[in-house]
Amino acid sequence: MTTVSRCGWMVIGLALFLPLMVIAQTVQVAPTVETDPVPSSGDAADDPAIWIHPTVPSLSLILGTNKRGSTSGLAVYDLSGNEVQYIASVQPNNVDLRYNFPLGNDHVDIVGISNQAGDVISIFKVNPDTRRLENVTARDLDLGINAYGFCMYHSTVSGKYYAIVTSDSGKIEQWKLFDNGQGKIDAVRVRSLSVGSRTEGCVADDVYGVLYVAEEDKAIWKYGAEPGDGASRWCPGKRLPMPCSPV
Hints:
- This protein is mainly beta.
- The chain has strands spanning 2-6, 9-13, 45-51, 61-66, 73-78, 83-87, 92-103, 106-115, 120-127, 132-135, 141-142, 150-154, 161-166, 171-179, 185-194, 199-205, 210-215, 219-224, 234-235, 238-239.
- The protein folds into two domains: 1-89, no CATH class; 90-129 and 140-247, TolB, C-terminal domain (Neuraminidase, 6 Propeller), CATH 2.120.10.
- The strands form six sheets. Strands 7, 8, 9, 10 and 11 form a five-stranded antiparallel sheet that branches. Strands 3-4-5-6 form a four-stranded antiparallel sheet, with no helix packed on it.
- A hairpin with a 6-residue loop joins strand 12 (150-154) and strand 13 (161-166).
């Protein structure tokens, strides 16, 4: 999936991957939907995520961050691009989500952001009936780094859920999320590592237990996503200590 921020709109399209034996050609991908613009202009509309409704796919939601200015916030859109909710009490840079988090006597879908208002992690749950986000963060989850990029990981090994935050200094923190017993989600830091320099984009592969991190102007690096995997980078076919070739 490719995402482009253009004049404050979230523009979402599908990228087609051709077999390697086909000669690469330049293809223009046109958007099928544009969301309502976020309140800020310029480089404001950033990292999106898509929540899939559990029973009616057409009721799914697009979540996007408005990271600039006094009007910063987390925007929620329907699949036609209409804004259905705007959370203005946060300054999110990146957003990600995971499904079926055990909270109380229920399992809920959760949305997390790197909140630059205080350099904290903020967690919301999706109410599938109202299609609204509800803040379930137990407390200010203060990071030891500047909040920048963000992604989430659900371990198939332990069943635990994690929030991963990157920073403009290249440092990364991994936090384990858990039910605090009072209907809220708390977290504890379980791993810290340094990529090297300015790092934003990240994504975790839950099935293979892999974390991909983009070190800007340098490379995409591959790490183990489990907290016990340490700071060693993974290379194709084998695991090697740093440094190794980029992905």
